[in-house]
Automatic annotation (TrEMBL):
This protein's encoding gene: 101899505
Gene source species: Musca domestica (House fly)
Lineage top rank: taxon: Eukaryota
Protein name stated in the entry: Protein rogdi isoform X3
Recorded family membership: Belongs to the rogdi family.
Recorded GO CC terms: RAVE complex
Length: 322
């Protein structure tokens, strides 16, 4: 509205008087208002009850550590011994399958096998296996350089052929059982390192035992020809021939090697025949089951090993009363 000037009495217009009335803003939607209120009361440092999140996170971590420690002590006190007991049962059953004296097993089981290929005159062996020893065998094979010549030789009880792989595997299995027997059932493990040491020893013994049967040791041809077992053959073979018996997985294999000189270069040809042995199949199955049990326990203890401070009695006394 017009106002009179205080200096000259004339009418003038004030800029404040000429300003239009400010328009009121529309009210905010209710959803936005509620969201803003919730955001105000749930800041990054508070939970819904106004408790700082830093404190609740710490409490959750302490509870998680408490639960882990509780489980760790149960594993050391109960589960380790339960697994060792179960493992020993499997390994004793495995020992009873061996055809040699092992862990109250008398051994000396006798079986007969026929190993042959097609055509049968290329290689054939009819043998008797007593324990870890071939006590009798009739072997016939045809040489590649003389197609019409069939060689024959045999093994007799006076000079049997020893399968060292069987005894090696039995020795390793006995070591694994001994490692279990060394742990008293009333012993209380204190740390994961103690358990890992015991399980590691058992695991290594079982692995060596299984490898003894699955992967035979390779020997050069000249070592085979001059080997002690070649003296078991009657009649003896010529110096360019070698016969080998070995185990590979669940099979008994006979291989015949022929050393030849071609234009000054030495090479050898070979042929082999095989037969499946039931007790070997059962032994390998039980060894694998034992290895799996060991690995399961090792993996579980490895998780707790990440917590270097974990040991029996490291929690508060109130936490131990369960």
């Amino acid at each position: 509205m017009p106002q009179r000037s205080s200096t000259n009495g004339n009418w003038s217009f004030s800029p404040y008087a000429r300003r239009k009335h400010q328009r009121h803003l529309a009210p905010l939607p209710e959803a936005i208002v509620i969201s803003a209120v919730q955001q105000k009361h749930t800041t990054p440092t508070d939970d819904d009850e106004g408790v700082p999140k830093v404190r609740t996170t710490m409490e959750a971590e302490k509870q998680e550590e408490f639960n882990l420690q509780k489980e760790f002590e149960w594993v050391l006190r109960e589960e380790v011994h339960q697994l060792l007991k179960k493992l020993k049962f499997i390994l004793i059953e495995c020992a009873h399958r061996f055809p040699v004296p092992l862990y109250e097993n008398e051994g000396k089981k006798t079986e007969k096998f026929i190993l042959s290929v097609q055509p049968p005159d290329q290689l054939k062996a009819i043998l008797t296996l007593t324990g870890d020893t071939i006590t009798q065998a009739d072997i016939s094979f045809k040489l590649s350089k003389s197609p019409h010549q069939i060689q024959r030789t045999s093994i007799t009880q006076d000079s049997p052929w020893k399968l060292q792989q069987v005894q090696d595997a039995a020795n390793h299995l006995q070591q694994a059982i001994n490692h279990i027997d060394d742990v008293d059932e009333s012993y209380h493990f204190k740390t994961s390192d103690e358990v890992m040491h015991v399980v590691g020893n058992i695991l290594e013994a079982l692995q060596r035992g299984r490898l003894s049967l699955v992967i035979p040791k390779k020997k050069p041809i000249d070592e085979l020809i001059k080997g002690r077992n070649m003296k078991s053959l009657t009649p003896n073979l010529s110096e360019d021939l070698a016969v080998s018996f070995y185990l590979q997985s669940h099979k008994l294999i006979i291989a015949v090697y022929q050393l030849t000189n071609i234009h000054g270069t030495m090479r050898f040809d070979s042929c082999q025949a095989e037969a499946s042995i039931n007790w070997l199949n059962e032994v390998l199955f039980m060894l694998s089951a034992g290895l799996q049990l060991c690995q399961q326990l090792k993996d579980k203890i490895s998780v707790f090993s990440l917590y270097k401070d974990f040991k029996v009695g490291s929690r508060a006394s109130s936490a131990l009363s369960y």
